[in-house]
Amino acid sequence: MTPFTLSPGQVAFVGAGPGDPELLTLKALRALAQADVVIHDRLISDEVLALAGPEARLIEAGKTGFGPAVTQEAINALMVEHADTGARVVRLKSGDPGVFGRLDEEIDALDEARIGWTIVPGLTSATAAVAGIGQSLTKRERNSAVRFVTGHDMKGYADHDWRALARPGEVAAIYMGKRAARFIQGRLLMHGADPETPVTVVENASRADERRLTATLSTLPAVIASSALDGPAILLLGLAPRAAQALTLTKQEVS
């Protein structure tokens, strides 16, 4: 196997994973070590950023759901500007670049500027979140498919095949779903979902301050509203923490 090499004037889209630096791939570590410039999302943990080379220039280009954000056009211009100088550029994205990461828009900008690029995949937060509650995304005789969906898109709350999501045994990882919780609840109940369907909310998946909230579809908006979530959270529809994880969580809440 040839070790990963980031060429001058090239951009590497690197998945930073959900936050725990030990979940980075070896290829991601090599890319960070070789980078002259790291253009990173707001949600990248300090522990991951610390793995960049000591001479690397770190540039935050963050987006906040329903809040202040660096425009996509400005991010595209940053990548082109630094790659044009011959710098080795890492575009560091939370989770996996290809999962709700606007990867295609950024690739299109580089293609238009005739700048080379490569993709280094990363662990998406759904995988880390479901591991944290001791479950699996698929299970024989329960679900043979799993959906990754977003709670909102550029036009507002995102629409989906709610009838399919409402079926018994369905599992979905809902990204950016905190503010859309009541909307999601309403659509699912409208299409026949059981109000007692389990939903687990995982905030800051894989990080030292990870928090898990257990709810049902009927209680989901109230649980989120009362929990003062301020970090990135993912909703695991159809999954509750396995008994051992639920017991541990209860002990932590009591202590």
UniProtKB/TrEMBL annotation:
Which intervals hold domain Tetrapyrrole methylase? 11-220
Gene Ontology molecular functions = lyase activity; oxidoreductase activity; uroporphyrin-III C-methyltransferase activity
Report the pathway entry.
Porphyrin-containing compound metabolism; siroheme biosynthesis; precorrin-2 from uroporphyrinogen III: step 1/1
Gene3D superfamilies per UniProt: Cobalt-precorrin-4 Transmethylase, Domain 1, Methyltransferase, Cobalt-precorrin-4 Transmethylase, Domain 2
UniProt keywords, alphabetically: Lyase, Methyltransferase, Oxidoreductase, Porphyrin biosynthesis, S-adenosyl-L-methionine, Transferase
Question: Which superkingdom heads the taxonomic lineage of this protein's source?
Answer: Bacteria
Among the record's GO biological process terms, what is one? methylation
Q: Which InterPro entries match?
A: 4pyrrol_Mease, 4pyrrol_Methylase_sf, 4pyrrole_Mease_sub1, 4pyrrole_Mease_sub2, CobA/CysG_C, Siro_Cobalamin_biosynth, Uropor_MeTrfase_CS
Might you give the EC number(s) for this enzyme?
2.1.1.107
User: NCBIfam families of this UniProt entry?
Assistant: cobA_cysG_Cterm (TIGR01469), PRK06136.1 (NF004790)
Entries under PANTHER family matching the protein: S-ADENOSYL-L-METHIONINE-DEPENDENT UROPORPHYRINOGEN III METHYLTRANSFERASE, CHLOROPLASTIC (PTHR45790:SF3), SIROHEME SYNTHASE-RELATED (PTHR45790)
Q: Per the similarity annotation, which family is this?
A: Belongs to the precorrin methyltransferase family.
**What's the protein here called?**
uroporphyrinogen-III C-methyltransferase
